[in-house]
Automatic annotation (TrEMBL), chain A:
This is Na(+)-translocating NADH-quinone reductase subunit A. GO terms for cellular component: membrane. SUPFAM superfamilies: alpha-helical ferredoxin (SSF46548), Nqo1 FMN-binding domain-like (SSF142019). Gene3D superfamilies: 3.30.70.20. It comes from Candidatus Jettenia ecosi. Keywords: 4Fe-4S, Iron, Iron-sulfur, Metal-binding. PROSITE patterns: 4FE4S_FER_1, 4FE4S_FER_2. Residues 307-338 form the 4Fe-4S ferredoxin-type domain. GO terms for molecular function: 4 iron, 4 sulfur cluster binding; electron transfer activity; metal ion binding.
UniProtKB/TrEMBL annotation, chain B:
The keyword Amino-acid biosynthesis does not apply. The chain crosses the membrane at residues 66-86, 92-113, 140-157, 169-189, 225-252, 264-282, 288-305, 317-336, 342-361. It comes from Candidatus Jettenia ecosi. This is Na(+)-translocating NADH-quinone reductase subunit B. It holds the Pfam family NQR2_RnfD_RnfE. GO terms for biological process: transmembrane transport. PANTHER family: ELECTRON TRANSPORT COMPLEX PROTEIN RNFD, NA(+)-TRANSLOCATING NADH-QUINONE REDUCTASE SUBUNIT B. It comes from the Bacteria. Keywords: Flavoprotein, FMN, Membrane, Phosphoprotein, Translocase, Transmembrane, Transmembrane helix, Transport. One of its GO terms (cellular component) is plasma membrane.
Length: 346, 367
């Protein structure tokens, strides 16, 4: 009953990869859009790029895992990266952030980096939201950027693995890239899969025959934490779509939830009633940027939204971990956003 | 096993659904029993609510579990040890009276009168504390009155989340003022050795003995630290077995229900200040280790002062809060006629927590 691992190890982030185990099987299918697919275009930034950060450290378990792109291809991937550097960013420093637990990838990359001075390898914890631009630049370069700020202002370019290979294919080899890999997972699906989808395909078509028949489900593009819920399934998949999560809408009561937390965990259920803040300090110990979200909540319920801005609210990176962990089920992220929006109007 | 229980679960769940819709359809029944049903229902079933705003996935840890963890820790911390030391006839009736009066009478009638939607979980924790902080031989009605006062006081302030001071300690303060004789006497010598049936039932009955702190005030007598640590010296029902209390509190700290900063700073400051005073005043005041292991200090530092609602929210301010508790405790123990000061210290610092918190926040954000 009290064995839940997730209640213990959280400090400045949360380990989703170990808590929500999402296993993808190796099948990679092709889903075609039916019409002419859109073609990936990458415009090389015209401003000077000083640093390029390649993020190989997905921190949400439903994100596209690295092995789908890198498996047995780490060296050729790094070769591609080298060619992109020579062609487009000859003066830039390259930083590659890899999950600490992926020993093999790190070893291969380290071996490669010993011959390449332009590249540095960083082994990062797999804590969400470690791959957020604000935290990535803070950890790797030591520079502070504001949430929502374009990293190109400071000459920092952040790329993910799939974009790197697509840039290589389209800009250097001159091939047309019209499809990308998408991870689909969740309790609303029969199976978790990684699918090769043509750009421009509708979400409906991807999820066709894959969702469970019984019960309601909700669809989230780019994950339930940072992503958006879409009610209109005819929306098209573009290059920014990394994953689709389909969660079971658990809106009926379940007997003895304490005994079967596994059944409920990966659903939209709040797992508890709304209560008053009990000052448990969960939100400020999980906050990755060291804020105290309960202060904003107290300012908000006292009707003093403007006071929330006094407590470093602008540093909030809207990762949603405070709402996620809150035992009283308070909508802390929504309150943060409301208080922030007030600041902009004044 | 699980599969065979599945049809039973379905039947129970359906009937609960039916009862719920019946209650909601009849306003008068809802007025009287709605909150009671809700409380019972929420204990055995999950909620219907789903996340409507980002993030759409929530952790499965709620206030019920939070309070449940405290209840489990208290059960291992004082209920089981005190059954061994004083017999179950001393412990269980008090617990039952405390829960029946506190939760099932005062809390439920408050929910009906004040038209609260639900019965808060925090009441259980307060009711678990009440017998622990009263003498073993205190009458049952005193426990009942204490539980009633604690829950009433908690509800008047607005329930869990709005408490100004610890309700259980407030009710003990009230009882100390109203019935001083009952709270000074009635400290029983615990049973030691291999228990037989009689001992498990009654303990060593009717042998009263002053608490170690009172004995020290009167004639400067100090019992062995070992007996204090294991709980074989007299004291309030739940405060004697320090070993069990510390172990269960460590578990609470590990699962992040209790904050480690408060007990560390509380016990640390008690040690430092009592060392300081005993170096200056010599044998007139109690030595540090004796102070740490006597009275309600361990129970207070690990379970009462760490009550998150009445302590400060800011982590730095928690150090100040704990240190203040320790300082006041030592002051009261050493320089007043009262033998024990933990209750007063925690209550005072609970009141001071709000200014400490706002000061700490102002210093941190440079407002």
């Amino acid at each position: 009953m009290w064995k839940e691992k997730e209640t213990i190890g959280f400090h400045g982030g949360f380990n989703f990869l170990d808590t929500y185990l999402v296993k993808f099987c190796n099948i990679i299918e092709e889903v075609s859009s039916g019409s002419t697919p859109e073609i990936f275009k990458y415009s090389i930034p015209d401003r000077e790029v000083k640093y390029v950060i390649v993020n190989l450290c997905p921190t949400e378990s439903w994100e596209l895992p690295n092995w789908a792109i890198l498996e047995n291809k780490t060296l050729s991937f790094l070769d591609k990266l080298g060619e992109i550097r020579v062609r487009y960013f000859p003066k830039a420093h390259f930083f590659i952030a890899i999950n600490k637990k992926e020993d093999r990838t790190i070893a291969e990359a380290m071996n490669y980096a010993s011959n390449a001075e332009w590249m540095k390898i960083f082994a990062l914890d797999q804590k969400y939201p470690q791959d957020d631009p604000v935290l990535l630049t803070k950890v790797i370069l030591g520079t502070d950027i504001n949430f929502g700020q374009d990293t190109m202002d400071l000459g920092i370019l952040i790329l993910d693995a799939q974009t790197v290979s697509a840039i290589y294919e389209s800009c250097i080899l001159g091939n047309k890239v019209n499809s990308r890999l998408i991870a689909i997972s969740g309790t609303g699906l029969k199976e978790n899969e990684i699918i090769n989808v043509q750009l421009g395909t509708s979400v409906d078509k991807v999820l066709h025959y894959r969702t469970v028949e019984a019960g309601g489900y909700r669809v989230f593009v780019n994950g339930p934490l940072r992503g958006k819920e879409i009610s209109d399934l005819s929306q098209k998949i573009d290059w920014s779509t990394n994953n689709i999560v389909v969660l079971k809408e658990q809106d009926s009561k379940v007997m003895f939830p304490m005994l079967k937390s596994g059944e409920l965990t990966f659903t939209t259920n709040t797992h508890g009633e709304l209560r008053q803040c009990i000052y448990c300090n969960f939100c400020d110990s999980i906050c990755p940027v060291d804020l105290e979200p309960a202060l904003y909540y107290h300012s908000y319920i006292r009707g003093e939204k403007h006071k929330a801005r006094l407590y470093n609210l602008e540093k909030c990176i809207e990762c949603g971990l405070c709402s996620f962990i809150c035992p009283s089920k308070l909508e802390l992220l929504r309150i943060n956003r409301e208080c922030k929006a007030l600041g902009k109007k004044l | 096993m699980k599969k065979s229980l599945k049809p039973l679960e379905d039947i129970l769940s359906k009937n609960l659904d039916r009862a719920e819709s019946f209650i909601h359809a009849h306003p008068k029944i809802n007025f009287l029993f709605g909150s009671l049903f809700e409380a019972f229902d929420s204990l055995i079933r999950s909620t219907r609510e789903t996340a409507q705003t980002q993030p759409f996935i929530r952790n499965n840890y709620d206030v019920k579990r939070f309070m449940g963890a405290v209840l489990v820790a208290l059960a291992f911390g004082w209920v089981f040890p005190s059954i061994y030391f004083y017999g179950w006839q001393c412990v269980l009736p008090k617990l039952m009276v405390s829960f029946i009066v506190g939760v099932f009478i005062v809390d439920v009638s408050w929910a009906i009168i004040a038209r609260e939607g639900h019965i808060s979980e925090g009441g259980f924790v307060s009711c678990m504390f009440i017998p622990a902080i009263l003498p073993p031989q205190s009458p049952l009605w005193l426990t009942g009155l204490g539980a009633a006062l604690a829950i009433l006081f908690r509800n008047i302030l607005g329930g869990v989340g709005n408490n100004l001071v610890n309700p259980a300690l407030f009710s003990r303060l009230f009882l100390t003022i109203c019935f001083p004789a009952l709270l000074v006497a009635g400290y029983q010598i615990p049973f030691v050795g291999i228990p037989d049936l009689h001992a498990l039932r009654y303990g060593l009955d009717t042998i009263t003995h002053a608490t170690p702190l009172t004995a020290f005030k009167v004639n400067g007598e100090i019992p062995s630290y070992f007996s204090l640590f294991l709980g074989t010296a007299s004291g309030s029902l739940g405060e004697t077995c320090r070993l069990a209390l510390i172990l269960s509190a460590l578990w609470l700290i590990k699962i992040k229900v209790a904050n480690w900063r408060i007990p560390v700073s509380y016990l640390g400051s008690v040690f430092i200040f009592s060392l300081f005073f005993s170096l200056i005043l010599g044998k007139a005041v109690a030595p540090p280790l004796f102070q740490l292991l006597s009275g309600g200090l361990i129970l207070g530092a690990f379970f009462m002062a760490t009550d998150p609602i009445t302590a400060t929210y800011n982590q730095t301010a928690k150090w100040v809060f704990g240190a203040g508790c320790g300082f006041i405790t030592v002051l009261i123990r050493d320089f007043t006629t009262l033998p024990e000061g933990v209750m007063y210290a925690i209550l005072l610092m609970n009141l001071l927590a709000t200014p400490i918190q706002s000061l700490a926040v102002k210093m941190r954000y440079r407002i």
